[in-house]
Specification:
single chain, alpha+beta, Trna Endonuclease, Chain: A, domain 1, Beta Polymerase, domain 2, 7-stranded mixed β-sheet, 5-stranded mixed β-sheet, 14 helices
């Protein structure tokens, strides 16, 4: 089972808060004639079962709305057996909600805007006026997200006591204990004998990490976005980025890192994860970059000390957990398939470790590993 897209996950959480509604979602790509949708969603009500073909689109604006509406209508014409297309997106303005309703495009968004209109059910919720306020109030703090990230990286550490976990991830013990308890209360962890825990469901925890990373942690880490100076494109600076990453000891993430790991994608953007000790302006100068709000190169601050991927031949690549989360930010067709490959090749094995009941008791190698490669973070 692969993780749901974080926006699909959050949209379904909002939908299931309504009385007598349950859902199941299959996130494998769904082939419809010559079109590929993002999965199959089944909505259960006391009276009926409804099937929707899911299409995930990001950051809808009036400039991109017509293309999205045309594609959804294209899917409508090709679906049969009572299936319908359903648009999933992040945040819809009130005006966009009105336009989609006018065009009879059914949708869910992450803030709880809902429009379902068929012979079995009709729901219209437009809460866009206060959605931004809701979006800015996370249920899990940034520090908790950093703990979650470490648990996803090394599921074995939960076989240790909280004090050893705190040493391994180099975080205050009280913060770690509070985070573990919080995750337990939210049903992401299960208690074990001796004050220890285990992951209840790795994929669910991964989905929660990616949702929190995109909505809460990443905005805190964002330094700026850049483009190459002059008429140059990303392809003109991709090799210099690899060269300078080695000398300046920053991490390559996003599309570029995904392309390096999978050999599948032709990247048009990247994310550079830079430690707080590094001068990002000096790096931007070496790469001949200029600030640009629509830039293809995003620079983020690193968090903690383990943003790097220590099991791979490339010394300055970000952890696949970070790469996979970044690919979810702009879910077009080429990135969806790349994200699937990153999950299958680099993350699924972590899930297997988390689901083994009797994996080995960790030894000092966990604490020693935290000292290795520390210069990269």
């Amino acid at each position: 089972m692969q993780p749901k897209h974080p926006w699909l996950q959050k949209s379904l959480e909002k939908l299931e808060k309504l009385p007598q509604i349950q859902t199941t979602a299959t996130v494998e790509p769904f082939q419809v004639d010559n079109a590929i949708a993002d999965g199959l969603l089944t909505i259960y009500t006391p009276q009926n079962k409804l099937e929707y073909i899911v299409e995930i689109k990001s950051h809808l604006t009036y400039e991109t709305l017509d293309v999205t509406i045309n594609y959804i209508n294209y899917l409508k014409q090709r679906l049969s057996n009572g299936q319908r297309p359903l648009l999933i997106t992040d945040v819809l303005s009130s005006a966009l909600v009105d336009e989609l309703v006018e065009q009879n495009i059914e949708f869910l968004d992450t803030t709880g805007n809902i429009y379902l209109n068929n012979s079995s059910i009709y729901i219209l919720i437009n809460n866009s006026f206060f959605s931004k306020k809701l979006l800015s109030t996370p249920k899990i703090t940034s520090r908790t997200l950093q703990v979650v990230y470490s648990l996803l990286q090394e599921p074995n550490i939960l076989k240790s006591l909280p004090i050893d976990i705190a040493k391994f991830i180099e975080m205050n013990l009280s913060t770690v204990k509070e985070s573990l308890e919080n995750l337990y209360e939210l049903n992401y962890l299960l208690r074990q004998p001796g004050g220890k825990y285990r992951i209840a469901n790795y994929v669910k925890l991964l989905e929660r990490w990616e949702m929190g990373y995109l909505e809460n942690l990443r905005p805190e880490l964002l330094i700026d976005t850049f483009n190459p100076i002059g008429n140059h494109h990303f392809s003109d600076v991709s090799q210099p980025i690899k060269n300078i990453a080695e000398t300046e000891q920053f991490l390559i993430g996003g599309e570029f890192a995904a392309a390096i790991l999978t050999g599948y994608l032709k990247p048009v953007s990247t994310v550079l994860h830079i430690s707080e000790q590094k001068n990002y302006r000096a790096i931007a100068t070496k790469l001949r970059l200029k600030p640009d709000p629509e830039g293809s190169i995003t620079i983020l601050k690193q968090f903690g000390t383990k943003n790097y991927y220590h099991n791979n031949q490339y010394q300055y690549i970000a952890d696949p957990l970070l790469i996979h989360a970044e690919l979810a930010l702009h879910p077009d067709e080429r990135l969806k398939e790349t994200a699937r490959r990153i999950y299958n090749q680099y993350i699924a094995a972590k899930r297997q470790i988390a689901e083994i009941e009797d994996y080995e008791q960790p030894t000092n190698h966990l604490r020693l590993k935290s000292k290795t490669n520390s210069h990269r973070s």
